[in-house]
């Protein structure tokens, strides 16, 4: 089974809320809520991939020193195995907006369960709730 490395981040605002982004129509798992991030390209570190994706998807800028490893997801999808490190980030420049027309929501940790997420993400929710 092919292992796909995806880097994701829990952006945490001053009120302790976490940013979720809705997967757009036309993508796999459309409509589900996910942590910002994306596939790590060849010759790219997970941190560099996140910095790139945050800029492209949300129009915000951060740096490696602001990305703290938090936990990871390891999940068998039908056609690949997802390995997804989840970082926490509290410092960035700019205001997040969906540059690819995806809906965004700042969500309190105890409400994360109300947002339908990809199956790989479900074990991450209690970790975030305990940690925040
Ligand atoms: N960014 C992100 N991706 C996630 C999460 N949970 C989860 O299963 N994924 C999966 C969905 C995708 O298969 C993959 C991320 O790919 P991507 O966002 O870079 O690219 P994509 O949607 O165009 O990928 P795809 O349509 O080919 O599946 O990881 C999550 O919380 N955040």
From TrEMBL:
**What is its cofactor?**
Mg(2+)
Q: Tell me which CDD domains the record gives.
A: NUDIX_MutT_NudA_like
Any idea which UniProt keywords this protein has? DNA damage, DNA repair, DNA replication, Hydrolase, Magnesium, Metal-binding, Mutator protein
**GO BP terms, alphabetized:** DNA repair; DNA replication
Task: List residues of the Nudix hydrolase domain.
Answer: 2-130
List, alphabetically, the InterPro entries matched.
MutT-like, MutY_C, Nudix_hydrolase, NUDIX_hydrolase-like_dom_sf, NUDIX_hydrolase_CS, NUDIX_hydrolase_dom
Protein EC: 3.6.1.55
Leader sequence range is none
The UniProt family comment states:
Belongs to the Nudix hydrolase family.
Query: Cross-referenced Pfam families, in alphabetical order?
Result: NUDIX_4
Name the gene.
nudG
Protein name per the record: 8-oxo-dGTP diphosphatase
Catalytic activity entry: 8-oxo-GTP + H2O = 8-oxo-GMP + diphosphate + H(+); 8-oxo-dGTP + H2O = 8-oxo-dGMP + diphosphate + H(+)
List, alphabetically, the PROSITE patterns matched.
Answer: NUDIX, NUDIX_BOX
Domain of life where this protein originates: Bacteria
GO molecular function, a single term: 8-oxo-7,8-dihydroguanosine triphosphate pyrophosphatase activity
């Amino acid at each position: 089974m092919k292992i796909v490395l995806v880097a994701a981040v829990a952006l945490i605002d001053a009120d302790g809320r976490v940013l979720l982004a809705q997967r757009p129509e036309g993508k796999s798992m459309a409509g589900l809520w996910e942590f910002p991030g994306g596939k790590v390209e060849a010759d790219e570190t997970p941190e560099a991939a996140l910095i790139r994706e945050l800029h492209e998807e949300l129009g915000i800028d951060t740096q490696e020193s602001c990305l703290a490893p938090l936990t990871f997801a390891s999940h068998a999808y039908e056609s690949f195995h997802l390995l997804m490190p989840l970082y926490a980030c509290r410092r960035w420049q700019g205001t997040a907006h969906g540059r690819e027309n995806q809906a965004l929501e700042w969500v309190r940790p105890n409400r994360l369960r109300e947002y339908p997420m990809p199956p790989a993400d479900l074990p991450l929710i209690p970790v975030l709730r305990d940690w925040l």
